[in-house]
Amino acid sequence: MSIFLTKDSKVIVQGMTGSEGTKHTTRMLASGTNIVGGVNPRKAGQSVRFPAFDGQDTEVPVFGTVADAVKETGANVSVIFVPPKFTKDAVLEAIDAAVPLVVVITEGVPVHDTAAFFAHAAAAGTRIIGPNCPGIITPGESNAGIIPADIAGPGRIGLVSKSGTLTYQMMYELRDFGFSTAIGIGGDPIIGTTHIDALQAFQDDPDTDAIVMIGEIGGDAEERAAAFVKENVTKPVVGYVAGFTAPEGKTMGHAGAIVSGSSGTAAAKQEALEAVGVRVGKTPTETANLMREIMQNLTK
256: pLDDT confidence band, cut at 50, 70 and 90? Predict the structure, then answer.
């Protein structure tokens, strides 16, 4: 099994005909994702041919609106590759078309725009992943976003991470065990799906045996996740917090990764996680080794 994304997911790509959309649609198709359409009002009625990976090119139709795409294809996932200034409208359009899962890859979306579409999504019951995220992959089944599909195969580890590159590294480090689902939730101050959302989903997934949670400095998301683990998660969890060497007041890559005084420090997050039994590695490799030890014990 998996969380949020399966082999049966029907995916559309908003911004498919742009350079990034085209590149990553090609990669998603190559990894087995069932992409049923793209959306571009200026190219409605056309189709895009993507190169063969199984001996036959794929023709993907382009629709003028998300509503048209959903009506014609039954799409239930949208991946968004549009510039920041158009992202809010793109997300709102997907929500209004009743798409259950919207993956927002775009970086640099204004926070007030994210707040607006997040509130709209919450009212409509739409799950948002992102913005400023690598997306979600269920290895061997579907890949919605930019996560390289050949890093690791299917397995029984669940991964939730604020960082794209650390998502990739952790998948590579634990490729010998594989993953049920890996989800990059993004590092902006406001995001849709949180650590807690993913932890709950992995807890409920019978084919996920253990969970890796990657956080970073800034905010209190990891502390809140620790409290959630204590009350709700019975599966083993290991963690990593990026930013132990970050100087106070320094923004580190993600807009949400900024420390003010003692709030949001890596040390404080580590302390909160370890207090509820989450083992925290000092480096990504050490964290992977902690999970490797857990998985080896589970298979004995």
Answer: low
